[in-house]
TrEMBL record:
InterPro entries: Cu_amine_oxidase-like_N (IPR012854), Glyco_hydro/deAcase_b/a-brl (IPR011330), Mao_N_sf (IPR036582), NODB_dom (IPR002509), Polysacc_deacetylase_ArnD (IPR050248). Transmembrane segments: none annotated. This is Polysaccharide deacetylase family protein. It comes from Paenibacillus chondroitinus. PANTHER family: GLYCOSYL TRANSFERASE-RELATED (PTHR10587), POLYSACCHARIDE DEACETYLASE YHEN-RELATED (PTHR10587:SF125). Residues 73-258 form the NodB homology domain. The lineage of its organism: Bacteria, Bacillati, Bacillota, Bacilli, Bacillales. It comes from the Bacteria. Pfam families: Cu_amine_oxidN1, Polysacc_deac_1.
């Protein structure tokens, strides 16, 4: 009898213990989704609102990020689909030319060429993630597959070189492949998706001839920042062949080269009508949301650069800037031309500068700010007390601050760009500035350059609304009116 009583008591205690454990497990599981959303500061209700907005097909306006506009026009060379047996040749050329670039590598290829992944990083280039196998029908059938491939490749890069690339390039680019969900989830996971604004055309078919790639690059529009698409995967021998000529071309136009960093505003295509049949349910979105948030918590990428305060013109800072300016200019002494320079402002308007009216510095054309602006039809005011020049043309104003070596560009009175440690020089009472930088700041672009032994010509183009004639509405917002 006593045995049966003890046995019953033990059973009751065991049952109570099991119930307590089940209660604790259920409480834990119910808390997990709450933590996943609270970690991002987003409630379940907000999550559903976001889902409904994304369902319309439009990208959500993400948190404003702060990027740095380079003072000099810059080319970001990018290479997709490697590494391969050609990657070493590309790296050799870049090393010889003193150029840094970005490589969007496939996980599948990285496993085959791990030493190339290590060399890309050792040589100071940026490594990006280009998925695992580049198979479109897998990557764009569902975000989950795309995400899994990015994670799979990332683990390979981590094993090879202890790195987790923040930059991602979608095979084939994002246009018609990505939808609003893809963009949103990648952004929330901390990735930066990068497209391009110059396509070399080296992958539009198998074995594109080198001269065709060259012509495509040369015919591409010029902008202040160019993200150029090349490929270093198998079969792209023509890319390797033409690469030195492309680098020389951009150097002659005054471009610098740099790898992609979080300071660079990424080129991204608009969201187009998807060519893939996909459906995203609310439940699936929640699952992906939680998965991407968990990744962001475990593997936080470096945050984008915070807003930098504009340096004040203290004596110490000015002294540092003068030293920096001297260091920059010492290897780049100006060359006095011997050939006139013809500048084509349009099909119907041009001007010829005598050799004494301009100079060359590291293949960059420099000339009088007043001469250039007045030939365009604008005007310039010099403030001797502050040593600043205000150039006005159409809807644009540019302020050249000589003591701070800073250029500020305005459109209708609104600041649109600021360039620090900018190239400018006061020579015999004349403000001398780079031609390309000034045209870029006025909303135009250089369309062609000829720098031959006996012939030098530059052509430029402006959109029609950039060269509106001055009227009261425009003038009241200009620096001239604001200063007066």
């Amino acid at each position: 009898m006593r045995f049966h009583v003890q046995h019953a008591a033990i059973k009751r205690k065991s049952f109570q213990l099991i119930m307590v454990m089940l209660l604790l497990v259920s409480l834990f599981l119910s808390a997990v989704p709450v933590r996943a959303t609270e970690g991002d500061g987003t409630s379940a209700k907000d999550e559903q609102e976001i889902y409904q907005k994304l369902k319309t097909g439009k990208r959500l306006q993400q948190e404003e990020k702060n990027y740095v506009t380079p003072e000099k026009p810059t080319v970001y060379l990018t290479f997709d689909d490697g590494p391969s047996k050609l990657t070493g040749k590309v790296l050799d050329i870049l090393e010889q030319e003193g150029v840094k670039a970005t490589f969007f590598a496939l996980g599948e290829q990285a496993k085959e060429y791990p030493d190339m992944v290590k060399r890309i990083l050792k040589d100071g280039h940026t490594l990006g993630n280009h998925s695992y196998n580049h198979v479109y029908k897998e990557l764009y059938s569902d975000f989950q597959t795309f995400w899994d491939q990015i994670q799979r490749s990332e683990e390979i890069f981590a094993d090879i070189a202890d790195t987790r690339p923040q930059f991602v390039r979608a095979p084939g680019g994002t246009y018609t492949n990505f939808d609003a969900y893809y963009y949103y989830l990648m952004d929330k996971a901390g990735y930066t998706v990068v497209d391009w604004n110059v396509d070399s055309g080296d992958s539009k078919r198998v074995h594109v001839p080198a001269n065709e790639i060259w012509q495509t690059v040369k015919d591409s529009p010029l902008e202040h920042e160019l993200t150029v698409l090349f490929h270093d995967g198998t079969g792209h021998e023509s890319t390797v062949e033409i690469l030195p000529k492309v680098i020389e071309y951009y150097k002659n136009l005054g471009y610098a080269f740099a790898p992609l960093t979080t300071d660079v505003k990424p080129k991204q295509f608009q969201v187009g009508k998807s060519k893939w049949s996909r459906n995203m349910s609310a439940a699936h979105f929640q699952q992906l949301w939680e998965e991407t948030q968990q990744y962001a918590t475990v593997h936080p990428h470096p945050s984008l650069q915070q807003v930098k305060e504009e340096p004040k013109n203290t004596d110490e800072q000015l002294a540092k800037q003068k030293v920096a300016a001297a260091e920059e200019e010492s290897p780049l002494l100006a060359i006095k031309p011997t050939v006139p320079l013809k500048i084509h402002f349009s099909q119907w308007s041009s001007v010829t500068l005598e050799p004494a009216q301009y100079q060359l510095r590291s293949n960059r054309i420099e000339l009088s700010l007043r001469f250039l602006i007045e030939k365009l039809g604008g005007n310039v005011q010099w403030q001797d007390q502050t040593k600043t020049a205000n150039a006005h043309y159409g809807i644009y104003d540019i302020q050249y601050d000589l003591p701070a070596r800073t250029i500020r560009a305005y459109a209708l009175g609104n600041n649109i760009a600021t360039y620090s440690l900018a190239d400018m020089e006061l020579r015999e009472g004349t403000m001398v500035v780079p031609l390309r930088k000034t045209i870029d700041s006025l909303g135009g672009r250089i369309t062609d350059t000829v720098m031959e032994e006996g012939r030098r010509e530059v052509a430029m183009a402006f959109r029609q609304f950039y060269i509106l004639k001055d009227n009261n509405s425009i003038l009241k917002n200009s620096l001239f009116a604001l200063a007066g």
